[in-house]
Amino acid sequence: MKIVVSTHQGVLYNEVIDYVVVHDQDDGEYAIMENHIPVVSVMEEGYLKLVRGNDELYVIIVSGILEFHDNFCTVTVQEAQAGRTLESTKIHLAEVRKERLEKNRKESTDFTEKEQELREHIKRAKAGKL
After folding, report:
1. What structural domains and CATH numbers belong to the chain?
2. How many other C-beta atoms lie within 10 A of the C-beta of residue 81?
């Protein structure tokens, strides 16, 4: 079966696999194998275990939808991270989220400072006064 995992940033994984184990915090765990009945599943948080032969790859999922039909699995998610073990993948996702949060805070601070500078310039220039 073929699986494609994508985020708004692009395709994270696009390969042929033997089967996928879907783990969702709310709904538990189930496997999808070749010729499985069609499935549509909404996932808030969970992971996929992608298996091909003796190889396993884990993909942490945050807010996504999984659709399977005709031996093709499409997973579209808000955020995802792939790794060889579940624990290392969780750790890496936490680090990426922390870096992104720090970057957003800095950009927000920079914006606030620039906005204050703009207000001071407008006040000094007496803009809007006749």
Report:
1. 2-97 (2.60.15.10)
2. 23
